[in-house]
Each structure stands twice: as C-alpha cells, then as structure tokens.
Design brief:
Elements: E1 7-10, H1 13-20, H2 24-29, E2 42-47, E3 59-61, E4 64-74, H3 78-96, H4 102-116, E5 122-132, E6 137-140, H5 145-159, H6 173-183, E7 190-199, E8 208-211, H7 219-226, E9 230-238, E10 242-247, E11 252-257, H8 259-262, H9 271-297
Antiparallel strand pairs: 1-6, 2-4, 3-4, 4-5, 5-6, 7-8, 7-9, 9-10, 10-11
Length: 305
C-alpha cells in the first residue's frame, strides 16, 4: 500500500507539461524488461504494475502516473568464482610446473566467469515509483540512492531527457531536525518517533549514536545534543497517520501506516481494483507528507525546461 522507503526527485512544471503530451505507457512499453541471455550479467527495463503477463505499463490516479522499473541480474558468488580460479591455478602448477602472471590470471578469471555465467541464477529486483505531474515529484520506493538514480537514468533513456534532481531545500534539514529534537520545536503536524541517529562532526572519528525504541525526550538523548552531536536521521509521526524516519537528505525510511490509516483501506473485489485503490490512497497520503516537507524545508520546484 504505502511505499516502505522513498527517495525523492523534483522536476519542473515544463517537464510536467512535456510528460502530459506524451504517451508514457507506450514509451515505457518500448523499454520493457527482458530476462538476460546466457552471457548477459544484467538486464533492466520496465514492467507492468499488474504482473508479468499484463501488457499495461502504468496506473494513473491523483495526477500521478505509477510504473515499475525492474532489473534481472545473474548472481555469481565471488567465493565460487575464486574457488574455480584456484582450481585451475593448481592444475597448471601441477601439470606444467610453472607459475602464472597477473595478465594470464586475469584472462583465466574472465574465462571462468564466462563459463559459469550461463548457469548462474537470475535474481529479479522490482522498484515501484510514480510521477506526480501536478507537484513535480518523482517518488521511488527504495532507500538506495544508487538504485533510485538507475530509475532516473532509465526514464531519461525513455524520454530522451528527464531533468529531475534531488531535493535542494533552502532550510537545512540537519539544522531543523536537530532543533526539533533539542528544543522541542516540532511543527504541529508531527510528533517524535522512537529512533534517531546523532553524529558529532567536531570529532576526528565522527562519533555516532543510534537510538531505537528510545524515548527521544530522555535526558540521555538531550545530553548527546548538548555535547555537540547533530541529528542526521529522526523518527517522526506525521499527522497521526504514518511513522517514518527522515534523513538529512530528505530520504524517507521505514514508512509505516498507522491504524487510523489502515482502517480506511478499502477492500476491493479484484486484485486489479485493489492495486488501484491502494495506489490512490498511497499517492494521496504521501502527497500530503511531501507538501509538508516542501513547506517546512522550503524545497523549491525546479524552473525551466
């Protein structure tokens, strides 16, 4: 229903207009993912939100266009590759009585990889995302910046150009998060959760404290702040509807709907209707959270093309 993790990007109103003029589903279909061939280590592309056999590539609701980026990767454990290389090295030593130089060893390793690759298991990775064309957000359900960037790169390949950028807040998240926790100055829409990550940038080692299942109003936490540590991640409750951990980069982790939200979830008659219903609820609730972040941290929407 609600994304578990969110990495955000922003795009301009001009980009939204360009997206509205394009047949996004048809364009994504031209880059539909396929499984890797025998000598391919990885393939990626787009998949249907409705399942592998469905031809539809998007779901639209609340001015949002949802899609799925998928990657297939053959998994070759390094230990297995190294063991096979060592076996071949021993064979050469026993049969030919000579050592092997670096260049020949590298070529031998490549031969081993090529021989093992067709038999390696294929692991899929599915990443859900949506484009909020009304407000200029790309919402990617991942905590990995690297994976999120791969989704953006894939969209750029599809559209030819997609100038989406990470949020660039005018208010420092680290400063605000630290002030909220140290001085109890949280906006009325949020309350403290039960976890945080504190770091001391003044020390050579960057001393760090991670708290979980902790009363963040405790004297122990306050003492760390008085000693100069700053908040890099903070657990929050938004509008009594969702729990989350917000990072200094405005990445959202561990997003979890509370009972008041899950109780409003409608039970549809079919899997397809359930997907649509869940997406409508998710885009609405996350949209309210993003509006709060935009106002609180003064996150500008990019201008220009």
């Amino acid at each position: 229903m609600i994304p578990r993790n969110i990495t955000l990007f922003r795009f301009s109103d001009a980009v939204s207009r360009d997206l509205a003029s394009q047949g996004i589903a048809e364009q994504l279909a031209e880059y539909r993912v396929r499984e890797p061939g025998p000598v391919e280590a990885v393939t990626s592309g787009f998949a249907s939100p409705f399942g592998a056999t469905d031809e539809r590539m998007t779901i639209a609701t609340n001015d949002c266009i949802a899609f799925v980026w998928q990657q297939y990767q053959r998994v070759l454990p390094a230990a297995a590759v190294n063991a096979e290389v060592e076996k071949k090295l021993r064979k050469v030593a026993e049969e030919e009585g000579r050592g092997i130089g670096r260049k020949e060893r590298r070529r031998m390793r490549e031969d081993v990889l090529n021989a093992m690759l067709p038999h390696a298991p294929v692991m899929p990775r599915r990443v859900s995302a949506w484009l909020d064309t009304a407000n200029g957000w790309l919402v990617v359900d991942t905590s990995s910046r690297r994976v999120a960037e791969m989704v953006v790169t894939a969209l750029r390949e599809v559209f030819g150009s997609f100038p989406a950028v990470p949020p660039a807040p005018e208010e420092s998240p680290r400063v605000l998060l630290t002030d909220w926790l140290a001085n109890d100055t949280l906006p009325s829409a949020i309350a403290l959760g039960d976890e945080c990550e504190l770091r001391d940038l003044a020390t050579a080692t960057g001393a760090m404290v991670r708290c979980r299942n902790q009363d963040l109003d405790s004297e122990e936490v306050k003492e760390h702040l008085r000693n100069g540590k700053q908040v890099f991640q903070l657990g929050l409750v938004f509008a009594e509807r969702m729990e989350l951990v917000l990072s200094e980069f405005l990445a959202i982790k561990g997003l979890k709907p509370l009972d008041i939200l899950t109780d409003t979830r409608e039970q549809a008659e079919s899997d397809e209707d359930q997907r649509r219903s869940d997406l409508t609820l998710a885009t609405l609730e996350v949209g309210q959270l993003l509006s709060f972040l935009e106002r609180t941290f003064a996150i500008p929407r990019p201008t220009g093309a």
